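Hi all, long-time lurker, first post. I run a small reading group and we've been trying to get comfortable going from sequence to structure in the token notation. Rather than ask abstract questions, I figured I'd post a concrete chain and ask someone more experienced to write out its structure so we can walk through it together at our next meeting. Sequence below, copied exactly:
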Amino acid sequence: MKFTRTAIPEVIICEPKVFGDHRGYFMESFKQEALNQFLGFSIQFHQDNESKSSKGVLRGLHYQTNGFEQTKLVRVVQGRVIDVAVDIRKGSPTFGQHVAIELSDENKKQLLVPKGFAHGFVVLSDSAVFSYKVDAPYSFENEKGIAYNDPNLNIDWKLDEGSLILSDKDTKNPNLENAVLADYNTNYYE
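-- Answer (accepted) --
Happy to help. Here is the structure in token form:
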């Protein structure tokens, strides 16, 4: 697997080696040892999640707080999405900046979204199956969100605003300046 740091170094693109022939393809979609070796510390994933969404569905920007922060390793099994990670760590040199990348069943790229980042995606294809690993359990009481259309974030979701489909909850998320934030000085991997 090839690992590439993005403009925000903690957000990492993971690209598996794909072996294809006339029958199809084979790849290792995840290898714990390789990821931990690249990072220099250990992340232990505890759960896999999967969602299916239609074109225009935007899920996010989500994160958790109070000891329930999650690292996510996200990928698309079928379809295409724009995937976004926003740095919400107060005091970080990249606070408020984001990484946006297209993930698809064709490019097979994955994105490692660390703790201290809000995450979201929008479906570009007719539908998409989105899969991700998390290293902490979901906590309803500690789930937070940031407005997907916060003008200070300036995220290009690649679709017209009128074609986006959001949950009622995601239409009510605050802008970054009014959100509960993470702390840059917290070491989430001790």
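A couple of things your group might point at:
The domain at 45-183 is CATH 2.60.120.10 (Jelly Rolls).
The mean pLDDT is 96.
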